[in-house]
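Minutes, project check-in
Item: structure for the 247-residue chain
Input as provided by the requester:
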Amino acid sequence: MSDVAYTVGPKGKTPAFFFCDHATNHVPEGLRGLGLSAAQLNDHIAYDPGSAALAKALAEAFEARALFCRFSRLVIDPNRGEDRADLIMTSSDTIAIPGNQNLSVDEKNHRLNQYHRPYHRHLADELDSLTAAHADPFVVSFHSFCQTTRARRSPRPWEAGMLWCDDRASAMAILSHLTAQGVQVGDNQPYSAKLYNYSVSRHVVPRELRHITLEVRQDMLASPAAILRWRDLLFEPLQTLIRPQNI
């Protein structure tokens, strides 16, 4: 079993693939929690709460393959390029990360080689298997966002966001469906995939796969019942995009 990623669901059965870059707040034992308290590691700075649970619920509903990162983005962020200053954060939402201060080049390279690069090899391998099995699959990357942050106190109004750059049609199909259900949905809000969306841009776009990056607000995913509500809200538009006649 890999220590950087894990999968659920059968490989190749369904023309859909889900993945979650910020699935967990786990910090490997040797990094000693990066000097953070348990409460700080349970904060949104360490992962995207609810995103993995939603991805798993939808993967089960569609009998689809899904891949999840096993390490916290504070160790090294899988959704950042190797040249980015925020690849290994020294602080996040006003909280300093003691274990990331003044890292040497060797320490940064160790985290790249131990975590970031192997994760992306797993993601690439899964997408290669997907495209070998299906001619026109659909890919969803899952994230979640805060209603407010310490640095930004004004509440974000959206309950979900559809992030897109190259595949507007898929994003609008889900956005329109959710809006009709009374959900307040952001179009490339609260973040814009036109500005940055590393994992999708690196792996999904070059393979010319239909896709969407889905953000759901974290307080909307705070219980098992809430997860099931979002699973049910998203099932119908995703079913249409996944092309159920091929399932």
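Outcome recorded: The mean pLDDT is 96.
No further action items on this chain.
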